[in-house]
Amino acid sequence: MNAVNIIQPQSGAAFELKKGDVLTVIDPKGQQVSDMVVFNRDDTKEKLSAGKTMDFEESILLTKGNFLWSNRSRKMMEIMEDTNGRNDFLLAPCSPETFKIMYNNPDYHPSCLINLYRNLQPYHIEIDDIPTAFNVFMNVQFDAKGKLKVLPPTSQAGDLVRFKAEMDLIVALTACSAEDSNGGTFKPIHYTITHRD
Amino acid sequence: MNAVNIIQPQSGAAFELKKGDVLTVIDPKGQQVSDMVVFNRDDTKEKLSAGKTMDFEESILLTKGNFLWSNRSRKMMEIMEDTNGRNDFLLAPCSPETFKIMYNNPDYHPSCLINLYRNLQPYHIEIDDIPTAFNVFMNVQFDAKGKLKVLPPTSQAGDLVRFKAEMDLIVALTACSAEDSNGGTFKPIHYTITHRD
């Protein structure tokens, strides 16, 4: 058994993976979202690219068999397993401005962007350089005209997405802070890392 | 009459706009795509964000009345007019790897990413820092499962998209180099700039 790492509600974590390591992101209670960003461990100017991923995978939704690509057109991760089946890159990580502008809430509110940034500080990544995240378990619905709507995730307790690292990586993950992403509840995210033999 | 600036087929241009200036991007022959990236003129770490734009505008497709947003959650441009009505952020600018990986072409091929980069060199913007572009006139179709398909643009000769700068900006534009974006033809893009009174 691999140790289960717990990301508390409305918080985040960052860690390194070696090429070949397997990361499993788990929704332990159901209906929670995790934002994930990924950087090349040896050169953090190379990072996850929403546009390159949708381009090479020819899909807005990404699931088992799809790869996540970098801004240098290289594979960063492979999705090996996905028991829920809804993940995308459509919306940027919630930020302080998300709550001011979209929720009309002028007060302090935790956010994925700040949680990603704080956890990435040991790796000297600036907040402006955090890319659009891979939205694990997020249920963004779109109609034929492209209108977007965020619904509670379809994920149930224990659903998971498993990723294999295609290069040495820095990964940051959150347990999402936004009410709309998870049906108004805040829940933890769990993850495990299996090291390559 | 404002001077018409011509971007030759498979090339690009970069220029500055002052807050309030109006940029008109014109498809002079029809069925051509222009990739556009935008930076805050006074701090190029602030730049166009596909994720923030789709998030705040709640739409994959962007047209008249929509704003283009930065990675700092600020409005960069307003779309004032759009005679064609199909623009998106779904695919990253075509790059040398696009032609190697998706077109199975190992030889040299011009690309929007290199044309953006070369034209942005006077502004000291690194290639890794070029964001996913706003795909003006691009006809990316998606089905309910999110599968993507690039069709020739629906734009006809003279179609245009007009943008108002919401802050002082550096803008780079291309006449797209990719066969799939424009039905296998390569054509110019025209643009005009109207300065605020």
Automatic annotation (TrEMBL), chains A, B:
Superkingdom to which the source organism belongs: Bacteria
UniProt xrefs under Pfam families? DUF1989
Q: Which InterPro entries match?
A: DUF1989 (IPR018959)
Q: Residues in domain DUF1989?
A: 6-170
What's the protein here called?
Answer: Urea carboxylase-associated family protein
